Amino acid sequence: VVETGSEIPQTDADMVLSVLNMMWLKINMMVDWSIEILKVMEEADPDDLPFVQIMAERELVML
């Protein structure tokens, strides 16, 4: 018996589900990141807020 490396071709529905899963993952990551930023801002001194804002803007650009 010879095994071939052929894969089951993806249907349009499979591709749509893959895209939705990737979008869901990105949304979850953004929510987690936002919660962490809010925790940092709660702990920050008012004098440190410009630094926190710069860091938040830098992270948003990376997303």
How far the N terminus sits from the C terminus, by CA atoms, comes to 48 Å
Average residue pLDDT: 76
SSE sequence, one letter per element = HH
For the CA atoms, what is the radius of gyration?
21 Å
**Which band does the percent of strand residues land in?**
under 5%
Number of helices: 2
Overall shape: rod-shaped
Output the structural class. mainly alpha
The counted number of beta strands is 0
Largest sheet: none
Residue stretches low in confidence (pLDDT < 50, at least 5 long) are: none
Could you characterize the architecture of this molecule?
73% of the residues lie in helices and 0% in strands. It has 63 residues and is mostly helical. It has a domain at 33-63.
Short description:
By secondary structure, this protein is an all-alpha fold. It is built from two helices and no strands. Helix content is 73%, strand content 0%.
How do the helices and strands line up, and which of them pair or pack?
Blueprint: H1 12-43, H2 49-62
Question: Which features characterize this protein?
Answer:
mainly alpha; 63 residues
